[in-house]
Structure formats: C-alpha cells, structure tokens
Fold this sequence. Notes:
Elements: E1 12-13, H1 19-24, E2 28-31, E3 37-42, H2 56-73, E4 81-90, E5 99-108, E6 113-122, E7 125-136
Antiparallel strand pairs: 1-2, 2-3, 3-5, 4-7, 5-6, 6-7
Amino acid sequence: MTLPQGVPAGFEPIFMVEPFTQRIGPIYSKPDGANQFKLGFLVDESHLNIERVVHGGMLSTVADQAIGINVAHANSQSNDVLTMHLSVDFISPAVLGDWVEATATLSKVSGRVRFGNCELKVGERLVLKASAIFAARATQRLKPL
C-alpha cells in the first residue's frame, strides 16, 4: 500500500475501524513498544476550521483515540474502554499539510478505572496536551492483537 507523501515510515492506516474514525480520517497508527501505539494524521482541508487551522474537535478526538487505544491494549490486554473524562489544553495550531502525531503515556492500566495522558506534536512543536479517564467495560468485544 502506498501512503500519501508526508506520512512517516512505519505508520499504516489505523487498525481500528469505526464509522466516526472513518469520517474524520484517515488516521494512522504505528507500534510504539509492546502493545502501545502512536497515532497520527496528515492535515487536509476537511480538518480545518474557519480560521484555517485544525479544528479543536479533531485534535481532541485524536488525543482521546490515542489514550483510549493504548489503555485498551496495555499489559497485553484487549479491553473495551469508554471515555469518562477528557481534559484538553490547546497549545499551538496545526495547519494544512502538517503531520500531527499523538503519543500517549499511561498512569493506571488495570482495574475498572484507567488513566492516561497524551501530547500531540507537529515535529517538536507541542500542539495539544490532554489527560483522560477511561472505564473498562465488564464485557469485552476487542480481540487481542
């Protein structure tokens, strides 16, 4: 598969397919250690707001996805998780043509309630910081990776 120019090596279309992610994508993922993933997207016209910068809802969604996917797959688990809380700080804008990359760090990955953080960057420039709380579902639908 040939990826668009600007998508870094190692990234592939996201493995998680859902209607909303398909609508806002394409979003790409890349393994980042054991059962951990980086996410990213190449900014196109559909991601921009009236000010011609990436819409805050798009950035927030990618942060939520990055933390959630990593929480769900941490410690060789495959858990369905639901966002209980998401806090976002917008630091700087992303613009048309930028590669926006999300890196999650996890602070609690077992039990019913789980916690994580995320940074979105364009190169070394910080675009967004987020923290989230997730609830693990009692019944699971995810398949192990």
